[in-house]
Recover the amino acids of this structure.
């Protein structure tokens, strides 16, 4: 069984907790894109664990975790994340963590360039997480990046780094007028934070192909949602990678594999970190109340998230682009405080109402069309079956199911592992 678990919206749908929940049925969990710009929050026995690079399956004893070729890996961040988990008693070893030799290394100068550019942009910034993700993907496609496999053979590395550093200094010192970077420091960084992972690096295509032939089940875990996909998202306010499910087999290392199932994670309301068109956005007290109720502050950055009601137009598009055949609706409990629940049911694009997600200028100028549904006004965090939910909550679920044209299979009503129901 090959399953991809992906975000339907702008990210932060609660993918981390759903992967954590569903990963128990899978032998292998793979990350296939992005880097440590992800922030997945999992609550385990009351402890909050934030994962940026590691797949959520790392918290299960018997799960093998994969960092695929589509990822960009900041070695220092990986080193720190692994050590922080070890302090909490989590075992991380070459048995349960495997890193693709084709994964790209995110270097300190990528982080530096990301920050220099964000600073230069000042008010016009795109909302980068300043973790070097766009610069490192740019270098990947310029064929000037280092890959994990390069750590296995250090011959000639010094020369390559010197070349790269000379090139980067043309921009860092020459362009941004910032202090030069130094090749020796980069090499020392690679050795300090990279060499501890030497034994974790594998030819992932060979590894996964063998596992799949042996009928092992694989889950591909996305970071961010459909609307952040570099090709199909709200470009240029997207991530630098393909977040959609169709990319999962490619980014994990098995482009020939076919997905059996795509589970889309969809939030019961909308949130968006950073800049870009966010048609359903609410403001003022109404927004602040929702942000508070949902605890909507970035897991990676602490930034307050922009919020809005459930967005039918964007979510229907997300379901479609992901090819989702099952939905997990998360954070339904957050809406319990509302008398009337706002839902963005259509966009007004230049005077025409539509539920087709627009692109470019049409998206930027689209206005939300809001409708209000009855709230349930009671605590639902203890419900474990659909029939235990108040009738307004069931109506809300059925409404979303119809509007987005996809079956809702799971509903979560709290952040703890057990706080969910299967429909
Ligand atoms: P991800 O990036 O998609 O993994 O999502 P984040 O971890 O960034 O954000 C989801 C947040 O919502 C985390 O703080 C979770 O602990 C929390 N969360 C997840 N599911 C639920 C839920 O059903 N109810 C509530 N109240 N919180 C939830
Ligand atoms: Mg997140």
């Amino acid at each position: 069984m090959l399953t991809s678990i992906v975000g339907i919206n702008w990210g932060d749908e609660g993918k981390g907790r759903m992967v954590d929940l569903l990963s128990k049925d899978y032998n292998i969990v793979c990350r296939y894109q992005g880097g440590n710009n992800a922030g997945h929050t999992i609550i385990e026995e009351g402890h909050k664990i934030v994962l940026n690079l590691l797949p959520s399956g790392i918290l299960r004893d018997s799960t093998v975790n994969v960092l695929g070729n589509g990822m960009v890996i900041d070695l220092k961040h990986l080193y720190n994340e692994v050590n922080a988990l070890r302090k909490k008693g989590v075992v991380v070893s070459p048995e349960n963590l495997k890193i693709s030799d084709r994964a790209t290394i995110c270097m300190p100068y990528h982080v530096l360039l990301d920050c220099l550019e964000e600073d230069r942009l000042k008010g016009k910034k795109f909302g980068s997480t300043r973790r070097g993700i766009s610069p490192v993907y740019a270098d990947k496609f310029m064929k000037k990046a280092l890959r994990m496999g390069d750590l296995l053979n250090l011959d000639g590395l010094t020369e390559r780094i010197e070349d790269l550093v000379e090139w980067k200094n043309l921009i860092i010192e020459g362009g941004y007028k910032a202090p030069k970077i130094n090749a020796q420091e980069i090499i020392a960084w690679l050795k300090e934070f990279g060499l501890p992972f030497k034994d974790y690096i594998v030819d992932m295509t060979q590894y996964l192909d063998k596992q799949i032939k042996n009928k092992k089940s694989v889950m591909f875990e996305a970071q961010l949602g459909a609307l952040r996909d570099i090709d199909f998202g709200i470009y240029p306010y997207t991530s630098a990678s393909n977040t959609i499910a169709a990319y999962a087999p490619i980014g994990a290392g098995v482009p020939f594999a076919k997905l059996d199932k795509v589970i889309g994670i969809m939030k019961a309301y909308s949130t968006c970190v950073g800049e870009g068109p966010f048609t359903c956005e609410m403001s003022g007290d109404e927004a602040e109340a929702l942000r508070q109720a949902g605890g909507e502050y970035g897991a990676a950055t602490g930034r307050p998230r922009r919020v809005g009601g459930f967005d039918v137009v964007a979510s229907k598009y997300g379901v479609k682009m992901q090819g989702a055949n099952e939905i997990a609706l998360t954070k339904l409990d957050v809406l319990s405080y509302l008398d009337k629940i706002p839902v963005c049911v259509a966009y007004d694009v230049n005077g025409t109402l539509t539920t087709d997600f627009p692109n470019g200028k049409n998206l930027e100028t689209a206005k939300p069309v809001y409708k209000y549904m009855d709230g349930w006004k009671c605590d639902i965090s203890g419900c474990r079956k659909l029939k235990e939910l108040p009738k307004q909550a069931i109506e809300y679920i059925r409404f979303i199911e119809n509007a987005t044209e996809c079956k809702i299979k799971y509903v979560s009503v709290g952040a703890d592992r057990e706080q969910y129901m299967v429909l």
Q: What stands out?
A: The two ends are 21 Å apart (CA to CA). Residues 11-12, 39-40, 299 surround magnesium ion (ligand 2) (CB under 6 Å). DSSP finds twelve helices and 20 strands in the chain. The longest strand covers residues 340-349.
